[in-house]
Amino acid sequence: MKNFFRRASDGPVGSDRSVRSLVVVLSCFTIFSCVTPFATAATRDLERARIGYSVGGLIPFPLLVAKENRFFEQAGIDVEMINITPTIAVTALVSGDIQYVIFAGTTLNAAVRGLPVKLVMVYNDRPLFSLMSRPDIRSIKELKGKVLGVATLTSGESFLSRRLLKDVGIDADKEMILRVIGNTPDRLQALRTGAVDATTLTLPVDIHAERLGLRRLAFMGDTLESINGGFGVSERWLQQRPDQVRKMIAVAFRGMAHARAQRQDSVALIMSKWKLEREVGEKAFDMMIRTWSDNGTASDQALRMGIEESLRLSNTKQTVPVARVADFTIAREVYRELKAK
Question: Which of 50, 92, 231, 313: CA 20 to 30 A from 146?
Answer without folding.
Answer: 313
